[in-house]
Amino acid sequence: MPKDGSPDAVTAPSQRTRVRRIPGRGHYDRATVHAILDAGLVCHVGYAIDGQPYVTPTGYWREGDRVYWHGSSASRMLRQQKQGIPVCFTVTHLDGIVFARSGFHHSMNYRSVMALGKAATVEGDAAKLAALEAFTERVAPGRWREIRPPSKQELKATTILHMDLAEASAKIRTGDPVDDEPDYALPCWAGVLPLRVMAGTPQADAKLRAGIAAPGYLKRFTLG
Amino acid sequence: MPKDGSPDAVTAPSQRTRVRRIPGRGHYDRATVHAILDAGLVCHVGYAIDGQPYVTPTGYWREGDRVYWHGSSASRMLRQQKQGIPVCFTVTHLDGIVFARSGFHHSMNYRSVMALGKAATVEGDAAKLAALEAFTERVAPGRWREIRPPSKQELKATTILHMDLAEASAKIRTGDPVDDEPDYALPCWAGVLPLRVMAGTPQADAKLRAGIAAPGYLKRFTLG
What we know:
With 224 residues, chain A is of the alpha+beta class. In chain A, 17% of the residues lie in helices and 37% in strands. The first copy, chain A, has 5 helices and 11 strands; from the N terminus they run βαβββαβββααββββα.
């Protein structure tokens, strides 16, 4: 994968987003960052009020070099964030637990993206509708035309934020444990317990009208 | 479940942790907060440097009314947090996607905990060893006695933080979509697509000594 400053980089890593502790785990190219973002549904957005950080989980989606998230216009989180304060947008996929032969080398396999920036609101009913359609279609292709679209009042009650991926980095750990050489002789199991998010059987609403089958996009849904 | 100020509450909800948007989703009792924390492995910790928030995923565990997380003593995150700056500790489990008949009422089922406070370091080799043993045994009961324990040098290279759950709240959404009354007549599938984290088949390290079987705790591992 291309690294720092390549033509494919979302950005050259800034002082703030460069992965320092284990530099080999850092990636800054667009394809890697986008792939991690597209595999997720819930981000954690950090913002501070009066010096106190808050970290709020929320649904998100990506289009091009932008991430979007949304919620009620009454939400404290969104009312703060739309003022253009610095935020941190983080997405994490836990891929496995790494069992080493020493306590010290236990680890986790994961893929994460951290993006710093300031959020701005999506303005105008047409743009907001298009953004909500993109989110819906990303989760469930074909669903937008099946459901009742948002009313003018509902659009007003919905705040949509977006942020450019101008200062973003990915961090990835994969593969086997890395033990100290003498420890490989220990009679201890070592390896990876893989973890992944699985979708179960769709559970129909108790009030679902008779004769409506679960759509195909539910069966095809994957995450991670 | 007991709410605000009950004898079982971790704390009365503060102005900062009270769930305001949809108060019925807020819970403040110890049993609910603990159960959500005990179902997870990775938290997102928020902290700010020079006004810029950072949100870092990391492994955690709980003992009593405290959460713990740890990492390299060289980590920027931990070096900042151990100075006693305000942090936000958030754990989220995504339990399902809620498909409503209108775009507006689409939602997610989830369980989350947000705790505010200041972190402090676990000091002393004995206390650090005990904390690391607790973390290991929580993930894999019985493993601590199978592995090589941390050396003095490794303990020095490991920073362990803890934070009291003095200001914590849980937020939970479960169940079916809640649609506007007229929309129940629409010929649209509605319900929940459940999601959960599943463990796969343990993958032995390429360098694993012959004749070492995967331990039972790998097969019994659950999350969420």
